[in-house]
Specification:
Layout (H helix, E strand, L loop, with lengths): L1 H29 L7 H23 L4 H17 L1 H15 L2 H17 L6 H16 L6 H4 L9 H7 L3 H4 L6 H17 L9 H16 L8 H22 L4 H21 L11 H9 L3 H26 L20 H15 L12 H10 L3 H26 L6 H20 L7 H15 L7 H34 L17 E5 L5 E5 L17 H5 L1 E3 L8 E3 L1
Antiparallel strand pairs: 1-2, 3-4
Helix pairs in contact: 1-2, 1-3, 1-10, 2-8, 2-15, 5-10, 6-8, 10-11, 10-12, 11-12, 11-20, 12-13, 12-19, 12-20, 13-14, 13-15, 18-20, 18-21, 19-20, 20-21
Length: 568
């Protein structure tokens, strides 16, 4: 636990240094030199930049000691270049840390470290997250890696960020603390924003901040894992909350806000490379695009598009090198003919499995069943607290319609930056529902939407039919969500008590140890797989696959593992 607190402090400093340098560089290019980004903005920019850096390094070599030392040198250079900006940020942080408010935040960070230092390993971490991080550490990547196990072809960029701070070269153990860092930082940031709740004229962003805290309650028992779901959902919260806080709480000129929105859209590209289920957030780009086109700021448009391409490029290159497909598992974009390409039939089966498992059908022959056929099955598989979460979203939809009608009656001018964030969140929910409706895949959207609707109506209003209706809708949202947080609060309390004696007060609990068997692949490589038909291969055995059948249909491309893999 103590080890994690030190690691988080280090991650926060490196993020802010790199982020400040990146933002200052973009500001010089666009001509916006005096925008105040704050700690949250520099941290987000740092996360994006380090993710891109780690992916780029992995194309040419392993993400290990040398790569980290280069990153550290870059952070030091950025710290010197941006020393004035960073001193302003750090002086504010220091002032908070030396107050009673800072003590509260420290207690919260320690509580998060308690959960992140021990506990349950996410199922997918055992299947492929841990192995993917090990591939980053050992080789970066090899061609055709997705043939060894198709999960590697998902190529979540979040695992590059996790690998950049695994620190195995320094402490002898591959740490997995980046999700814990995101939870600790975002929860403290949310609490800091909520302290001014009474002063806020609009509580749209406050609803998002509450969503961050609620999501933390949901995932705390497994936050130890470098699960791509958690990292993706936290960045969705981060981006949407920043967007709504700029829209509702930030004073400034329209042009300055537009630049901030455009930078957030670059971050949207990054979170899409974390998990494609977050891709509908790209709808946010419509607002700054229209604003910049209207003002004919073509240079800025080119710079922001270039930034987005820089973020996207290493992820696409890795996709092609790992699977032979530009975007896996989408067979519609078939551009390459390479010997390591995952066969289209395997890709299609994988894509179908994701969808039917999300719909609780568990049979790929039912992939084309209409919504009317699979929805009753899917709904029946949900626990009561999950049903209530979905009902909260239905109520929020009614609330959003009422809000639009009320504003039209009052002839209020629509705030298009708010409209577009609602559209992006609703787009995220729609994409989640029709593609792969696992609750955890879209949980950030499912929490944000009702809480945004709740926050929208928390404002002074004359007594009348609209106020009464909005009051009932807010109460319905609150009680629908109460079962969800009540379930996880009780679960976390019981879990926390049960793990008090775990030996993780100083050093983080390692990845699960599992029993493995081995076989020799065609080409002479020894590959490990879980014994007894299990799916958990974890981290230690390497190279390994959670599914022997996938490795059996694969062979080496050459005489060495560095040559990569190809289908038989």
């Amino acid at each position: 636990m103590a080890e994690l607190l030190i690691l988080w402090g280090y991650i926060g400093i490196v993020n802010s240094c790199i982020g400040a340098g990146v933002l200052k560089g973009i500001g010089l290019l666009t001509g916006r030199k005096k925008i105040v980004y704050g700690l949250a903005g520099t941290e987000l920019a740092g996360i994006v930049a380090i993710t891109v850096y780690a992916q780029t390094v992995s194309i040419f070599g392993k993400v290990f000691m040398a790569a980290h030392l280069i990153l550290l040198a870059a952070a030091a250079a950025c710290a010197y270049w941006c020393r004035k900006e960073l001193l302003v940020i750090w002086s504010r942080v220091k002032k908070i840390c030396l107050s009673w408010e800072g003590v509260l935040y420290l207690i919260f960070a320690v509580m998060t470290a308690y959960f992140a230092s021990r506990g349950l390993q996410h199922t997918d971490t055992g299947i492929y997250h841990a192995q993917a991080i090990r591939w980053y550490e050992e080789y970066g990547l090899v061609k055709g890696l997705g043939n060894l196990q198709q999960h590697f072809a998902y190529n979540s960029a979040y695992l590059a960020y996790a690998a950049a701070f695994s620190m195995k070269w320094l402490v002898g153990q591959s740490l997995h603390g980046t999700n814990g860092f995101l939870q600790a930082f975002l929860c403290i940031w949310a609490l800091y924003g909520l302290k001014n709740f009474a002063r806020h004229k609009s509580h749209l962003a406050d609803g998002c901040r509450v969503g961050i805290l609620l999501y933390a309650i949901v995932v705390s028992e497994r936050i130890m894992s470098p699960a791509t779901d958690f990292g993706t959902m936290y960045l969705v919260f981060f981006i949407v909350t920043l967007w709504t806080s700029i829209a509702c709480e930030k004073e400034g000129k329209v042009g300055e806000k537009t630049d901030l929105y455009a930078l957030l859209c670059v971050a949207v590209v990054c979170v899409t490379t974390f998990k494609l289920s977050a891709g509908m957030l790209v709808i946010l780009a419509l607002y700054p695009a229209v604003c910049l086109i209207r003002s004919k700021e073509w240079k800025k448009i080119g710079i922001y598009l270039l930034c987005g391409c820089v973020v996207l490029a290493p992820w696409l290159v890795r996709n092609v090198l790992i699977s032979g497909w530009l975007i896996y598992p989408f067979a519609a974009i078939d551009l390459f003919s390479v010997d390591w390409k995952i066969p289209a039939s395997y890709l299609q089966n994988d894509s179908d499995q994701i969808k039917v498992w999300g719909r609780c059908l568990y049979d790929v022959t039912k992939i084309n069943d209409p919504v009317s056929a699979w929805f009753p099955v899917w709904w029946g598989e949900k626990d009561r607290y999950e049903m209530m979460l979905l009902i909260a979203n239905m109520v929020a939809g009614i609330s959003a319609v009422l809000s639009v009608v009320w504003k039209r009656i009052r002839k209020e001018k629509l705030c298009w930056d708010r409209v577009v964030v609602y559209a992006a969140v609703l787009g995220g929910i729609a994409g989640w529902f029709f593609l792969a409706p696992f609750i955890r895949y879209g949980l950030a959207f499912l929490l944000i939407f009702p809480l945004m609707a709740f926050g929208e109506w928390l404002r002074p209003m004359q007594m009348g039919p609209v106020r009464i209706a909005s009051g009932f809708l807010c109460a319905a949202i609150f009680f629908s969500l109460s079962m969800y947080w009540d379930y996880y609060v009780l679960f976390d309390l019981v879990w926390g008590k049960q793990h008090l004696t775990d030996p993780a007060w100083v050093v983080q609990q390692d990845y699960d140890s599992v029993e493995v068997e081995s076989f020799e692949m065609e080409g002479g490589l020894i590959v490990y797989y879980p014994a007894g038909g299990q799916e958990n291969i974890s981290y230690d055995a390497f190279p390994a696959t959670a599914y022997r059948v996938m490795a059996e249909r694969t062979k080496l491309r050459g005489s060495d593992i560095r040559d990569g893999f190809m289908p038989k």
